[in-house]
Amino acid sequence: MNSRIRRLLGSTVGRTPVRIRRGVAKGARWTLYPWTSYWRGAHEPSMQEAIGQLGDRGIRGWSCWDLGAHFGFYSVALALRVKAEGQVAAFEPNPESFDRLDLHRRMNGLTWLKAYRCAASDQSGASELLTYGEVDSTTSHLPYEGETMGSMTAPIPISTIRLDDLVEKGEIRPPNFVKIDVEGHGHKALMGMMKSVAAARPILIVAFHSDLEVKGVLGTLGPMGYRWKTVNGGASNPDSMVGGDFLFTP
Fold first, then answer.
1. Is 5 a domain residue?
2. CATH at 134
3. Does the pLDDT of residue 12 top 80, yes or no?
4. What DSSP state is assigned to residue 183?
5. End-to-end Cα, the chain, rounded Å
6. pLDDT at residue 197 above 80?
7. Which contacts (CB < 8 Å, 24+ apart) does range 36-39 have?
8. 18 domain residue, yes or no
9. What is the largest CA-CA distance in the chain?
């Protein structure tokens, strides 16, 4: 199915309301299409299990950040768990994904879930999201180091923000938990929230997409005393972490 047809379906019948059948966000209101794995409960079972196990006594009242929120599946799941005493801040620069994220937030009445149409980074300002003509895909990303720019990259303008700036303004609370899945930009997102991480010592889950991202995140969190393992409990190998999801604990 081509991108044009997918986008047409997503904007019409795709917005039909459904309920998430099972998993960490079970019972939440959702939309039918695309990414039906979200409401069917089949999306990333190991990640769902890891998030479901956060906190020895639950995570009610926690502050959670979701970097690379996509349609907001984990944002909604976390908001349901932290309840109104807590706070979730979701960051998604892709305009089509953000539109669906904000819809899901409103469908579930989650006023304590704050949604930001921007990318977490090491500086606040402007950048471009490279889409390669597939704005509705999950692989749109900020430019990689050395990536060749051109018409094929089909960039769209976006905003970037340092999360430490939002904390300092009192707009969001320091985190108890952070999920980072930003298509190779995680090390830069982490640099933009180092004051908050150093002060709050949150648990993190990071999805790795490049060797540079792995090196940057390990080089930052390792000296801070963080330990890491795969989200399914296996031992981590720094030589083969790309493509995996890793749990970091202080």
1. no
2. 3.40.50.150
3. no
4. T
5. 44
6. yes
7. 38/71, 38/73
8. no
9. 51
